[in-house]
């Protein structure tokens, strides 16, 4: 069963101090921990542990990268 996250729970997955790095896009939570560009939970001024639905539309890759990421749950 998929885990459900609220924004407070998601914020705990910020990629800092050995914690996993998760981001939410369009209600789905993805694990970006193993993505080198997300080392330390930061990527081009964005921080893991947040809903980045509005931000990803401005990224050069847009949503194309999402199919490569593990889905870990949903954002409620």
Automatic annotation (TrEMBL):
SUPFAM superfamilies: Cytochrome b5-like heme/steroid binding domain (SSF55856). It comes from Ligilactobacillus murinus. This is Cytochrome B5. Gene3D superfamilies: Cytochrome b5-like heme/steroid binding domain (3.10.120.10). Coiled coil: none annotated. SMART domains: Cyt-b5. InterPro entries: Cyt_B5-like_heme/steroid-bd, Cyt_B5-like_heme/steroid_sf. Residues 5-76 form the Cytochrome b5 heme-binding domain. It holds the Pfam family Cyt-b5.
């Amino acid at each position: 069963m998929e885990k459900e996250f609220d924004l407070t729970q998601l914020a705990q997955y910020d990629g800092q101090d050995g914690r996993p790095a998760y981001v939410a896009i369009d209600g789905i939570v993805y694990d970006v921990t193993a993505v080198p560009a997300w080392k330390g939970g930061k990527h081009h001024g964005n921080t893991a542990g947040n809903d980045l639905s509005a931000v990803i539309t401005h990224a050069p890759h847009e949503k194309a990268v999402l199919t490569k990421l593990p889905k870990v749950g949903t954002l409620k």
